[in-house]
Every structure is written in structure tokens, then in C-alpha cells.
Specification:
This protein is 24% helix and 26% strand. The chain has 23 helices and 44 strands. Helix 3 runs parallel beside helix 5 (255-268).
């Protein structure tokens, strides 16, 4: 009992709270503790790779004074013998929201949007908030701190996760007693993310591409502002400038977003630490090539409950596969040399951290690398290697004491010391009382069996004739608490036993009966605890399925490469003056059309008999919205010329594969029609399995989307209070005139500045006006969403006033009314074959529209504007024959050569001409037939779709689903947590789709 009181006294003495040196103390005498604490005979990991056996750790005033095998122990030292124990540096999590109240969402953003800021003296966009400092609102959260301490963490970084530029974060020591020492650094990180602020209903940005454009404009404005060019003070840009030297952490939450953030960093010479999501393994080559450091969550999805076959059919193969592959993410990152720290972010419970990390280790993640990712790497990322992350001399005394190797399932974490202050997780002095005892309580005798683990013993009491007695049992700090319950559960005549463990062979204490009588109880050990040998073999992790390119259904086992192919005896639609050739050969070599003719040969080619087949150039969809991430419209302003679809190409979209199956090789991905001046487009080649940047058409002409009609004036948005200008069709005209004039003046101001040897204050770089100036200078082409003849004429008149022309009217369903004027202007038409009457402004649409414009001499194309239609454009072309008696050759050009001309890429694609890109489709029969199937779709000599391989992929998908369902059923049978199947409703973008 005296020993217990002494330990209690030392615990209080060692963990007493001290305020700052200059604070008055009115609760006791003022006294400073300059004693040392010495930990001896321990296995000490100074760093993950520096291990000391039988070592000594000397601590004073919260710091490591010495560590090694020959440490001199000062006289005024408290010595703690850790024979058989191990010391590790405490963990560091640099990405948390510890001590932060989550910002509350403003739900009125979409229904009552704000277009201009209400803030005065700050940046014009309210999602840019670099002036926010976490330390100003931080409140130490002791319950959460205890969760983290139990998991082995000693230091955390925390910040307010709100907005695109989120402000600064702090570094906090999880010191529950010395409040004045908790904040290690009040400003250590600067945080950014692809997310709007929830505190504003400002409409811009409403899309991912808008967020990227805003980031670019923000950095350009910062550079301009720092050079003294602004006449006004901007507190946000001031803060951003002050935060430049801090560690820059960018929250991406997706592998493709990590590539996008890395792109921004490269453009502006920045060094982002990327906070990922756990799916980095799916694009490991591209992730590695960013050369960025990462923060990776140890959060894995639960298996789905697939016991109901109907519900399990709703689960995407992608999600099932991710469950299987996610635990291998850390190993794959490590094996590829990607430097990363680990975080508890995204965990449902902090206590899940260790089991998840052990799971990753079972899947091959190296234990030393795991320890580095929790100690030395996060410390190095923060530039704090001399203070945290190791037990080198001078570092904070942040360490954990364990029973053994820290990443062993059976290892017990006893204590977590932070800045020399002890936090007890499990009692290191607890005695092992496991065994069999004879228990005597007054006149009653029992058999008492104590088993389990030494730190978490379990108890079972029986009568002498082996009848089980109801009881509850607990041990804390060597105090036993035992409650013996009566057999009759209605009665409350409990017997309460307590006692302090001095000798495990003989236990005793006080028993209190229901009537208040007290007696001494005793328990004499009759036999020692014998651990049952674990004969169960450790469970092997599920076999990890290989990653495909892309890692979704119908992905390929490896990245595809170009082939030399010779197709013999086909019907060849050249789209050139030669027309349609029969019994003709096509040679594809080095990604180009090498030859078209008869009796061709090439010793290196794979020869394919194409007798009865038709060969054409690939279909080109001039107007598509597939494969775009998080928003086809940036609806926040009436002009968003600064945004570009090139930033948000989604290379994983299954619609890409479906387009290939329909013979589509190239698409122009257009911004929607939410504003008169929309965003820049992306011309892409559908290279299935390639990265987004690899899909972009090389050296592509510059295009931008404009729009007319109902959408741009918010006539059909469902907004309570539509206030954005314009609200009328005549207002739309004024938007164009105003922006063209402003862009002209902007361009002239830069020309004048550059002509004057760049002296004086530089104009502000404005990405929006810079893009519109490219239009005026005939460097960028307009594709304009249009329906009504009056507006079509209006835009042509406006552009002619500024001495340039519209390149393409898309939709153009009243083009037949003004085809002569369009011919005179020199504009092309990309229309629908036979869409009409789906909204008021298309009531006058007719299926003869395309042929009429074609006969007027316009370059006419048919487009999809729809994910489903884009893979059936061959049939759309056939409708030109049906409705307009257009020749089959000319009709086929509506979806091949003509869109290539509209996109100014017909020198490379759109026909089968020697020297052009080998973008080729092999059809089962005449491509205009509704029975025609694309049997092979080739881009630059690479076969991206093969109908025979497609059949094999479908069988493989069925087999893979069955395998994964079997694994998930096993998980459920083991009693593991599962999640309910949910059907994901995918939004297919159209011109008028708004992101909410």
C-alpha cells in the first residue's frame, strides 16, 4: 500500500502543470523542478534506423539531454528501470483538425448566390482566406488528445480546413498538463485545397476548373502586388505573401487532383506537400513523377455486405477492386521512392489507426518505412528535425514506452511522454495475476480462474462444484475490483471485492456485502497460468488484384503500345479525292498512315485480313462533355474565359471506352452554356489508360465556348433570386461588346508597357481578359452554343465590329434560316441530326437543318453533346442521307473530316491520307449502317478497342466480381465490419448541367 502511494505521489510530482516563468503563482510556493528523469536498460530507437540495446535515456525540462550506452547519470535523477521494454519517438500527424471547430456550411449558396464580395480590404474572392490563422481560434481538446496519445502520437499539426487558400496552421504538442508548452509553432504551415469556403454563398468558383483558375489568378495577383503595382492595400495578399516561407500543404483528396495541384506548383515554382487520399497506387508513375512529398491517410474501405446478390449487383467493380487494393497503397508508394508522412485523417475512430497500419504492413509495407513516415519524415517536412521525430540530444522528450516491437499486434503501449510529461496508456507496473486461485469470501469458497493478457486479464468464477457465478472484474493500477452477482437476477445482494495487488501468489482485500458488512477476502494461487499455444496460422492478406490502366472495368493489364499493322482487302473510306476504295490495303506504321493501296507488304507488320470490312478515319466529336471532373460549367460569373477544361480531364471515365467502342477517337470537351463567355475547351484523343495530360491533343488549336439563349440569362436555373447580369437576350449582346472592348484595351495596355521597356507600374495580368484578347487577335477560336436566328446574327455582327469571326456555331438548330449569312461570315456549323422541341427555343428545329447548311456551302458536322449519343455518331451521320439525300461519302465527313476542319486539325486527322495520324476504325460493314460495329479503334497506331478483346474483358470482369464477392463474404464470416451496398448515380454532363 505504501508503494502504491509513493507511485501516486511521483506521478503527480512529475506531471505538475507549470505556467510561464513570469506568471504569478498563487496556489503554492514557486518552485522549479530541475531534476533529471533517467530511463535505463531499454531498447531505444533514437531514429527508425538508429537502435541502442540496453540503452539509457536522460531527460530534463522536457528535452533529451543524452542517449546512449555510456550516459552519466546525475545525482538529482529519478531512475526508471525499463528492462525488457522499448522506447520509440512519439508519432507525428501533421494533418489534423485537432482543437478546431468545424466551419458551418452556408446552405443558401445555390438558391441565393452572391456574385461580388461583401468583404472590404480583402481579396475579391471569399474562398481565398490566407489571413485566417488557426492559433486565433484554437482550443486544446483534451479528450481528443487522449485518443491520439493512446495511439502513440505526441505532436500534431492542425488547421482550419475551409476554402481554397485556407490560411496558416499550428504545431501542437499533446501535453495535457503544461498548457504554456502546447503550441510549438503558431504559424508553421500554409494550407490550400480544391474546395470552396462554406462560409460564403459567393457563386464563384462553382467548379474544379474554376478553383484551378482562381489559384492561378491569385498567384499572379500576388506577384503583381508584391512588386508594388497596386494602388490599394489587400490584406489577403499581404497575408499570402507573409505565408510564402511556410510549409505549403495542398489537400487534393484524389490521385488526379494531386497531378493537378502538382501542375499548379510547377507553373509557379512552388513546393506543395500533397495531402492524398489513398488511391495514389492507381497512377503511381505519374504520382512519382511529380517529385512531391505526400501526406497519406491510413484509412481503408470496409468490405461490402454482398450477402444479397441483388444489392451486390449495384456495386461498381471499381469500388470492389479499391477495397481489395487499397491496403497495398503504402507499399507501392514506398517501393517507388515516394516520400510520405502518415495521417489519421479520414479515420472513423483514432483507435483504428494501428489496426489499419498493421494491415498495410501485412500487405508488404516495410516497418522501418512506417516508423519513418510517423517520425522523421513529418519532422523533416516541417523543418523541425532538431526538435521532434527523434530522440537525439536537444529534441523534445516525446517518446512511447512499449512492451516490444511497436508494430507487433501483441505489443502493449504503456506510456506516452510528451515534452517530458508522462501520459499513462497501460500501467507499466501492473502485475501479472493470471492463474487459478481458491477464493474465500467469509464462509463462501469459489474457484477463480484469471486468464487473458497480463494487461487485460479476464476472470471467471465458479462454485466448488463448477457452477458458473455471475461476476464482473477489472484491474486498474494494480487495484482489483470484483463484483459477485447473485444467481437470482431480480435480487440486488451483490458482494463487492477490492484489493491491492502486492503478491500475485496471494491476493487479498476487503469484501463488502449487500447489508454493509465488511470482511477480508483472500485468494491463494493453486496453479500458474499456462498460455494456450496459438495453433492458428496468421491470416494471409487477400491476394491483391493487379492494377489496370485505367484501374476501372475494361482497363488493360498494361499500358498499350503502337503496332505496325497491315490491313488487307478492305473497303477504305479515304475522305480524300480518291473517295471509297475497294479491295484496298492500309499500312499503319510508327503511329502514322504509311500507305494506302493494293498489294502492300511490310515484313514487320501484323497482317490482318479485312475482306468484307470497312476502314475509315476515326470519328471526331466536335461537342462533348464526357470525362470532365467536378463541373462542366463554371457558372459563378457571366464570363469565365480564365477556366479551361484541359485542367479537369477525367481519364478514368468509362464513357471514354464506350466512345472507342463506337469508333470515336477525338473529342472536343467543351465548357457548358451557363454564361455568355464560358471556358476554354480541351481537344483530346481517347488514349484509354493514359494520363489526362497524355490524352490532350498535342499543340492543339485554342478554342473557347460562348453561349446564347435561355441558359446564359438564367431563365431555367431554378434560382430564387436570379440577379447575375444578363437577364435578357439584349443584355447578352452587351456582355460580349463590353468584354471585347475591355480585352482590347487590356491588350493595348500591355503592348504599350512592353514597348516602353517595361518601365513603370505593370498592368495586372488578368487571365480572363488575356484569353479574350487572344480571340480578338485571332489566336483563339469561338465555338458558340446557339439556337435562335436573331442571336446568331447578333454575335456575327458583334465580332465583325471587332474585326474577327466566329469559328463554329454549335447546336445551331435555326442555322437553316440564316445559312446564307453564315456562309458570308465564314463560320462553320456543328449541329444535331434530328433533335427538336426539347425546349422552347428549339421549337423551329428541323432534321433538314444539316443538309440545308451543307448545300449552302458551309462546313457542317454532327456532334453528340451527350454521353450516349457520342458512341453512335456513325448512325447520326447516316441521318444526313435519310433527311437530305446527302451522299454517303459527304455524310460520313459530317463526323470525321468536317469536325477536323472546324477544329483546325484536318492537316493531321480526319482522313486516311499518307502521313496523317493513324486514327483508324475497322468496321464490320458499311459504317452508316445501324448494324455496323467498330471492331478495332486505333489511335496513332495503338489499338485501344478490339471487339474480340472486349468479349474477353467482359468474361474477366464477371470472374473478378465473383472473386471479390467471395473475399467479401469471407470478411463478413470472420465478423469484420462491412458496409451496405449503395448504387452510385453518375451525373452525365450536358450543356446546362450545374454543379451544386
Amino acid at each position: 500500500m505504501k508503494k502504491a502511494l509513493l507511485l501516486l505521489f511521483l506521478s503527480v510530482f512529475l506531471t505538475k502543470t507549470y505556467a510561464q516563468d513570469y506568471f504569478p503563482i498563487n496556489e503554492s510556493v514557486q518552485n522549479k523542478n530541475k531534476n533529471y528523469t533517467v530511463f535505463t536498460n531499454a531498447t531505444i530507437y533514437v531514429t527508425p534506423t538508429q537502435k541502442i540495446e540496453k540503452g539509457t535515456l536522460l531527460v530534463q525540462d522536457g528535452k533529451v539531454v543524452a542517449v546512449g550506452n555510456t550516459v552519466t547519470i546525475p545525482k538529482n535523477s529519478i531512475t526508471i528501470d525499463l528492462e525488457g521494454k522499448t522506447i520509440y519517438p512519439s508519432f507525428i500527424d501533421i494533418y489534423t483538425s485537432f482543437g478546431i471547430e468545424k466551419p458551418k456550411s452556408n446552405l443558401g449558396r445555390f438558391r441565393d448566390p452572391l456574385y461580388d464580395t461583401k468583404r472590404v480590404g480583402y481579396y475579391w474572392n471569399e474562398s481565398v482566406r490566407p489571413e485566417i490563422n488557426t492559433y486565433e481560434t484554437f482550443k486544446y481538446d483534451q479528450p481528443k488528445a487522449e485518443e491520439l496519445l493512446k495511439a502513440g502520437f505526441g505532436v500534431v499539426g492542425t488547421h482550419i480546413a475551409d476554402g481554397i487558400a485556407q490560411g496558416t496552421g499550428i504545431l501542437v504538442a499533446l501535453n495535457n498538463t503544461e498548457n504554456s508548452k502546447q503550441i510549438i509553432a503558431s504559424k508553421i504551415t500554409n494550407h490550400l485545397a480544391f474546395s470552396r469556403s462554406v462560409l460564403t454563398n459567393q457563386a464563384y468558383p462553382s467548379s474544379l476548373m474554376g478553383m484551378m483558375a482562381l489559384l492561378r489568378q491569385m498567384y499572379l495577383d500576388l506577384d503583381w502586388y508584391k512588386k508594388g503595382n497596386s494602388d490599394t492595400k489587400d490584406l489577403s495578399l499581404e497575408a499570402l505573401a507573409n505565408n510564402e516561407k511556410l510549409v505549403q500543404i495542398f489537400t487534393t483528396e484524389d490521385k488526379l487532383n494531386s497531378l493537378r495541384a502538382a501542375k499548379i506548383a510547377k507553373e509557379f515554382g512552388l513546393n506543395y506537400i500533397l495531402k492524398g487520399s489513398g488511391n495514389e497506387f492507381e497512377r503511381i508513375d505519374e504520382i512519382k513523377n511529380t517529385n512531391a512529398k505526400f501526406i497519406i491517410p491510413v484509412s481503408f474501405p470496409e468490405a461490402y455486405d454482398v450477402s444479397n446478390p441483388y444489392l451486390s449487383n449495384q456495386i461498381e467493380l471499381t469500388d470492389m477492386r479499391f477495397w481489395n487494393q487499397a491496403p497495398s497503397n503504402l507499399k507501392i508508394l514506398s517501393d517507388n521512392g515516394v516520400v510520405f508522412a502518415l495521417t489519421t485523417d479520414k479515420l472513423k475512430k483514432t483507435e483504428d489507426f494501428k489496426p489499419n497500419l498493421l494491415k498495410a504492413i501485412k500487405y508488404g509495407f516495410d516497418k522501418t518505412k512506417a516508423l519513418e513516415a510517423l517520425t522523421t519524415i513529418p519532422a523533416a517536412i516541417l523543418g523541425k528535425s532538431n526538435e521532434i521525430g527523434s530522440l537525439k540530444t536537444g529534441s523534445y522528450a516525446n517518446f512511447v514506452i512499449t512492451s516490444g516491437e511497436i508494430f507487433d499486434e501483441k505489443t502493449v503501449l504503456y506510456e506516452n511522454w510528451v515534452q517530458g510529461t508522462k501520459y499513462v496508456v497501460n500501467d507499466i507496473n501492473s502485475k501479472d495475476i493470471r492463474g487459478n486461485y481458491n477464493l474465500t469470501v467469509g464462509k463462501d469458497s469459489y474457484k477463480w480462474k484469471i486468464e487473458g493478457t497480463a494487461n487485460a486479464p479476464k476472470s471467471e468464477i465458479t462454485t466448488l462444484d463448477d457452477k458458473k457465478v455471475n461476476s464482473t472484474f477489472a484491474v486498474s493500477k494494480n487495484w482489483i475490483s470484483l463484483l459477485i452477482k447473485p444467481a437470482d437476477t431480480i435480487k440486488a445482494n451483490f458482494t463487492r471485492l477490492t484489493g491491492f495487488i502486492e503478491k500475485p501468489e496471494s491476493l487479498s482485500g476487503k469484501a463488502v456485502f449487500a447489508n454493509g458488512d465488511e470482511l477480508v477476502w483472500t485468494a491463494l494461487k493453486t496453479s500458474a497460468f499456462v498460455a494456450v499455444k496459438d495453433t492458428v496460422k496468421p491470416e494471409k492478406p487477400n491476394p491483391v488484384l493487379p492494377v489496370t490502366y485505367p484501374n476501372v472495368a475494361f482497363g488493360d493489364a498494361k499500358k498499350l503500345t503502337a503496332q505496325t499493322l497491315l490491313f488487307k482487302n478492305a473497303t477504305v473510306w479515304t475522305n480524300e479525292k480518291e473517295g471509297v476504295l475497294t479491295q484496298t490495303d492500309v499500312l499503319i506504321k510508327n503511329g502514322k498512315i504509311a500507305a494506302v493501296g493494293k498489294n502492300l507488304s511490310d515484313a514487320s507488320a501484323s497482317v490482318i485480313d479485312a475482306k468484307g470490312k470497312h476502314i475509315t478515319s476515326g470519328i471526331i466529336d466536335e461537342h462533348s462533355h464526357i470525362a470532365i471532373s467536378k463541373g462542366v460549367n463554371e457558372m459563378g460569373h457571366n464570363s469565365t474565359a480564365e477556366v479551361t477544361i484541359q485542367d479537369v480531364v477525367n481519364s478514368e471515365d468509362i464513357n471514354i471506352y464506350r466512345d472507342l467502342a463506337g469508333g470515336v477517337t477525338i473529342s472536343q470537351l467543351l465548357h457548358g452554356s451557363a454564361n455568355p463567355i464560358g471556358g476554354r475547351s480541351a481537344i483530346v484523343k481517347w488514349k484509354w489508360g493514359a494520363s489526362p495530360d497524355e490524352m490532350l491533343y498535342k499543340n492543339q488549336p485554342k478554342f473557347i465556348k460562348f453561349a446564347l439563349g435561355e441558359n446564359v440569362k438564367q431563365a431555367n436555373w431554378g434560382i430564387d433570386n436570379p440577379t447575375r447580369f444578363p437577364q435578357t437576350r439584349m443584355g447578352v449582346e452587351q456582355v460580349f461588346t463590353d468584354y471585347f472592348q475591355r480585352a482590347k484595351e487590356y491588350d493595348e495596355s500591355w503592348k504599350k508597357f512592353n514597348a516602353g521597356s517595361k518601365k513603370g507600374k505593370a498592368p495586372r495580368v488578368d487571365l480572363e481578359l488575356q484569353t479574350i484578347a487572344e480571340i480578338i487577335n485571332k489566336e483563339r477560336f469561338i465555338t458558340c452554343h446557339s439556337y435562335v436566328e436573331s442571336e446568331i446574327l447578333m454575335l456575327m455582327n458583334v465580332t465583325e465590329k471587332f474585326n474577327f469571326k466566329v469559328n463554329t456555331f454549335t447546336h445551331i438548330l435555326e442555322g437553316y434560316k440564316v445559312a446564307d449569312k453564315m456562309k458570308e461570315h465564314g463560320v462553320g456549323a456543328s449541329t444535331f441530326s434530328d433533335w427538336w422541341a426539347y425546349k422552347f427555343e428549339v421549337n423551329d428545329a428541323i432534321p433538314f437543318n444539316g443538309p440545308i447548311m451543307h448545300n449552302q456551302g458551309l462546313v457542317v458536322a454532327y456532334n453528340s453533346d451527350d454521353a450516349e449519343m457520342s458512341r453512335r455518331l456513325n448512325q447520326e451521320a447516316a441521318k444526313a442521307v435519310k433527311y437530305g439525300n446527302i451522299s454517303e461519302e459527304d455524310a460520313w465527313k459530317f463526323v470525321t473530316l468536317n469536325p477536323a476542319k472546324l477544329l483546325h486539325i484536318d492537316d493531321k486527322v480526319g482522313s486516311l491520307k499518307v502521313g496523317k495520324d493513324a486514327d483508324v476504325v475497322i468496321w464490320s460493314e458499311n459504317p452508316l449502317s445501324i448494324y455496323a460495329k467498330a471492331e478495332k479503334t486505333i489511335i496513332e497506331g495503338v489499338v485501344y478497342f478490339d471487339i474480340e478483346k472486349d468479349a474477353q474483358k467482359q468474361l474477366a470482369i464477371t470472374k473478378e466480381r465473383s472473386l471479390l464477392i467471395g473475399q467479401m463474404l469471407q470478411e463478413k464470416n470472420k465478423g469484420m465490419s462491412t458496409q451496405q451496398p449503395t448504387k452510385k448515380e453518375k451525373t452525365e454532363y450536358h450543356c446546362d448541367t450545374l454543379e451544386q
